[in-house]
Amino acid sequence: MQTSTLTSRPTLNPALRDFWLTPARNRVLYGGRSSSKSWDAAGFAIFLATKCRIRVLCARQFQNKIAESVYTLLKIQIDRFGLRSEFTITENAIRHNGTGAEFMFYGLWRHIDEIKSLEGIDICWIEEAHNLTEEQWEILEPTLRKEGSQFWILFNPRLVTDFVWRRFIARTPPNTVKRQINYTENPFLSETILKVIEAKRAEDEEEYRHIYLGEPREDDDSVVIKRSWVRAALDACRKLGLDRGPRRRVGFDVADSGEDKNALVAVEGIEAVRVEEWKTREDELLKSAGRVHAVARGMNAEIDYDSIGVGAFAGAHFQSLNAEFGVTLDYHRFNAGDGVLNPDAKVDAEDPQSPKNRDYYANLKAQTWWAVAKRFRNTFNAVEKGMSFPASELISINPACDHLDQLIDELSTPRRDFDNAGRVKVESKKDLGKRDVPSPNLADAFVMAFAPREQKPTAWVLTRSNR
């Protein structure tokens, strides 16, 4: 196929033609899901690469692996346009053989200082820009100093308080073209996804408007853990000059069935240092338990595992693995529906009017989520407001962890709910599913790894001496 016909291909959305061709320093494309934003950006970027020598910096907030970038999306568009022979695609870069155009891929959180030193960038494409911070923008904006250079800023709106919404939508700066696009302008959607969208509209109009029409939420007061709190916890140990602490724990959320995935979060002291997610068949619990046990052995860590459903058998596997490897790793069952810890203790020990744990929390899951939420809130106040707290009441997330975008989303999505007795609980997976929110496996593993605990391990462990 000739490159001269590329713009007429049906893989580019004609509704966005003027958006891409209007001269501007900042191109801001936002809206709901299934709107073709990223697909169109990738297609237009490939078109430009076939016409002129450009350097494109493809950035997103968290990118510890090339698979987390738009690299795959660009490759797909190259193939759809029939241009594979014109490009050299390596493991971490894409170049056009004729024009010399190149695409580079960076994560803002870990590489912002390295990005500052890049020269000759024509386009900085920021994908999933809802996570962009004011501090990062103050670094990025003067970094693109080449004449005619541009920012492409793409995102699904989250909150009206997010920096990217306030900076580019609420108070749009000069030399900026912004365009909202939703699924209603995407001519390439299948009937299947259209039916899914209409079902969501019939079920929950407010959620439909947020997810598919890109309407930002006014606030996040309905959630257990606020997004701003989680963001503040990123690299909090370094920000606050704290040691992680000695205790090692691994939280393990066991996949139930079907499309559900296993998740693992490893913690050193007050900092999450490792985040993993993987899919296995229902009959492969031993394989997953072995993976978790190997991580725990490497860290000399305790294991907290989901003991509901399939996970009920994980303890027996950990017992066998202890015997096999001659180690004494403690492992603890976590049943979200169990009764609360210290039921007669007050929720707030310093408040004489505070209710007791058993009267305030519906179950163990609620109690642990609220405990973790308190640590996130404390961390936010320490980082953003300079308030002082004991290190044990804070929480940190190492920015080198994988799946950070997903982890932040999952931690800051579940809402507060109440049982028939008026006690607080966390929005159930079933109710999350009604909002088209997948099971928060990473968040559940995270909370288990930081969960308060009073009971001793429920299963005995084998030592070298009694093998």
Q: What is this structure's SSE topology?
A:
Layout: H1 17-21, E1 26-30, H2 37-51, E2 55-60, H3 71-80, E3 87-89, E4 94-96, E5 102-107, H4 108-116, E6 123-126, H5 134-143, E7 150-155, H6 163-170, E8 176-180, H7 191-203, H8 205-212, H9 227-233, H10 236-240, E9 248-253, E10 262-268, E11 271-278, H11 285-299, E12 302-306, H12 314-325, E13 331-334, H13 357-360, H14 364-385, E14 396-397, H15 404-411, E15 416-418, E16 424-426, H16 429-434, H17 441-450
Parallel strand pairs: 1-7, 1-8, 2-5, 2-6, 6-7, 9-12, 11-14, 12-13
Antiparallel strand pairs: 3-4, 4-5, 9-10, 10-11, 15-16
Helix pairs in contact: 2-3, 4-5, 7-8, 9-14, 11-12, 15-17
Pfam family, one: Terminase_3
Protein name: PBSX family phage terminase large subunit
Domain Phage terminase large subunit N-terminal: 26-215
